[in-house]
Design goal:
With about 375 residues, the chain is an alpha/beta fold. The chain has a single domain, classed as TIM Barrel (Alpha-Beta Barrel). The chain is built from 14 helices and 10 strands. The chain has an 8-stranded parallel β-barrel with strand order 1-2-3-6-7-8-9-10, surrounded by 5 helices. Strand 2, helix 3 and strand 3 form a beta-alpha-beta unit. Helix 9 runs parallel beside helix 11. The longest helix is centred in the middle third of the chain and has 29 residues. The two termini are about 30 Å apart.
């Protein structure tokens, strides 16, 4: 679920997991943006950061304690990429740069928290409306994708981020199609586009029930969804590189225990093998699914159970470095009675990810973790 990135709401073992095999050859110079993106990182919500009254020097001190090499500033609200000194305060950016800590910008691909002024036709429609003030937008809509492209070009021109990434660039949601939950996009716009593409311009627009109940159509529907996600990643990478080739682009996928690549493709529209092979992002992040990070008893070694994803991606595109993301703060922040993922848990996760061959790792989120007194000492 999307709660992983919401700033307002917020015992596994190795048996059965294949050994992770990652070629970690580092052929980049120490000064390159890719080299600056190696190792441990943390996600930072700038609004939450400022609300805590943490000074730039205190932030840098915390990052150094945890051996953080770079950070992901992330935004969930509407912003068009224009210069905004209240959003990105210069004193913090300067402090990070002066201490050799790079800054990535993380955005959400499929939604915004709060209201926007986008046309209604750009919106995703789910089988069941999503609760709260979260507006989902569809990768099937070319105008929405074009808006994101223009936004990214503005960002690259206005800011010196070492990389830009769109997490949650997928269709909601894991297996909710079985209970008519938050599954999308089933809008008239998406179904009309699908019908015209596969049945011709004069065919009557198919209902989703018709698509779902016909095995051949449903297979084509899965292709249609994965094509849209791959296209979005391609367009964003092209926008970044055409504006400033030195700025990195990271694609994001999804990891889930006891899942399969086929299921992830079906339910999220994420064909991760195609993304690394065809898009060739500078980095590819495996995001921990809500079904995993929402497990109160989750142990840091769970990342080993994503080996089926890692091995497939390294076979598809051996040269694309991989990162992994976890959530260290959300559950205990909203329910103090739950076991906290303390500094030992997080350190174990970070160290295990790097020793397993991941190029980098990151975690959600600095401010929520800091408020709970869990930061690494």
């Amino acid at each position: 679920m999307i709660l992983l990135f919401n700033p307002f709401f917020y015992g596994c073992n190795k048996s059965g997991a294949d050994d992770i095999v990652i070629d970690d050859t580092d052929d980049v110079t120490e000064s390159s943006n890719l080299a600056k993106s190696k190792g441990n990182s943390i996600q930072i919500d700038p609004y939450a950061l400022y609300s805590l009254g943490i000074t730039p020097s205190e932030l840098v001190g915390d990052l150094k304690k945890a051996n953080i090499k770079y950070v992901h500033y992330f935004l969930v609200n509407y912003w068009n990429g224009s210069k905004n000194d209240d959003l990105f305060k210069k004193e913090y950016l300067d402090a990070l740069e002066e201490n050799g800590i790079g800054v990535w910008l993380m955005l959400l691909g499929n939604c915004f928290y709060g209201k926007t002024t986008f046309p209604k036709e750009w919106e995703m429609e789910c089988l069941t409306p999503y609760p709260g003030e979260i507006c989902f937008y569809s990768f099937h809509n070319d105008e929405y994708v074009d808006w994101q492209v223009l936004r990214v070009k503005n960002i690259v021109k206005n800011y010196n981020f070492i990389g830009i990434e769109f997490a949650e660039s997928y269709f909601p949601e894991w297996k909710t199609i079985y209970d008519n939950g938050f599954y999308g996009d089933v809008s008239l716009y998406a179904r009309r586009k699908f019908t015209r593409q596969y049945l011709g311009p004069d065919a009557d627009v198919l209902s989703f029930n018709t698509i779902r109940s016909d095995p051949d159509l449903y297979k084509k529907w899965q292709d249609f969804r994965s094509d849209a996600v791959v296209n979005f990643n391609k367009k964003i990478k092209e926008a970044i590189k055409s504006t400033n080739p030195k700025v990195l682009f990271a694609s994001w996928g999804m990891g889930i225990r006891n899942g399969s690549l086929k299921e992830i493709r079906e339910h999220f529209g994420l064909d991760m093998e195609r993304i690394v092979k065809e898009v060739k992002p500078d980095l590819f992040y495996i995001q921990t699914a809500a079904q995993d990070w929402g497990d109160p008893g989750l142990k840091p070694h769970y990342l080993l159970e994503y080996s089926y994803i890692v091995n497939a991606l390294k076979t598809a595109a051996p040269d694309v470095p991989l990162g992994i993301q976890t959530d260290i703060a959300s559950l205990s922040f909203h329910n103090p009675d739950l076991e906290k993922r303390d500094g030992k848990w997080w350190s174990t996760f970070m160290n295990l990810s790097l020793s397993s061959g991941y190029y980098t790792n990151t975690a959600y989120e600095y401010s929520f973790y800091k408020r709970q007194g869990l930061w690494v000492e």
